[in-house]
Write a structure and sequence with these properties.
This is Heavy-metal-associated domain-containing protein. This protein is an alpha+beta fold and about 70 residues long. The protein has one domain: Alpha-Beta Plaits. About 30% of the residues lie in helices and about 35% in strands. The chain contains 2 helices and 4 strands. Strands 2-3-1-4 form a 4-stranded antiparallel sheet, with helices on one face. The longest helix has 12 residues. About 25% of the residues are buried.
Length: about 70
């Protein structure tokens, strides 16, 4: 299992709820969270096989943006 971190523009729990169905569909993602207290609003993803591109694509489909940390 690996942990990937991304800077995001996911600013609140409502935003995270919008992203949830998109990230939950990505094969290999076992858990994820957003650190709302961090300046970069870090998206932290636990994965067994999902790639950075798959995660970024899922979040962008929800209308948000990621930058690899």
């Amino acid at each position: 299992m690996s942990t990937l971190q991304f800077k995001s523009n996911i600013k609140c729990s409502g935003c995270a709820n919008t992203v949830k169905p998109f990230l939950d569909k990505v094969d290999g993602v076992t858990d994820w969270s957003v650190d709302f207290a961090s300046q970069d609003k870090l998206l932290i993803v636990q994965t067994t096989s999902a790639t950075e591109e798959e995660i970024t694509s899922a979040v962008e489909s929800a209308g948000y943006h990621l930058t690899k940390k």
